[in-house]
Design brief:
Elements (H helix, E strand, L loop, with lengths): L1 H29 L41 H24 L1
Length: 96
């Protein structure tokens, strides 16, 4: 029986050593540094024009004041469309 215990200990020790080696190898693969290429200074071109702003909230406003959102014409149009929709829904509910 003593022979079986010693062989099991040796087997478990060799397995532990194999696992440690595999772990070290995996760490070396995972932790490799990323190589970044440096841009040579002669390829850098200075900007002569300002960059174009694509977001309208940051764009400079040239107009003095924006157009009003709610005008009399738009208000009457909304009321007209609401009345038409309400009438259509009422008529359909009476037919069905």
């Amino acid at each position: 029986m003593d022979g079986d215990d010693s062989s099991n200990k040796v087997d478990s020790q060799s397995q532990i050593q194999k696992q440690k080696k595999a772990l070290e190898k995996a760490k070396s693969v995972v932790q490799r540094p990323v190589v970044q290429k440096a841009v040579p200074p002669d390829h850098i071109t200075p900007q002569t024009q300002p960059t174009f702003i694509t977001y309208p909230e940051f764009a400079p406003t040239n107009s003095q004041s924006p157009k009003t959102l709610l005008t009399l014409h738009r208000l009457l149009l909304v009321l007209y469309l609401c009345a038409g929709t309400t009438t259509a829904v009422y008529a359909v509910s009476k037919v069905l």
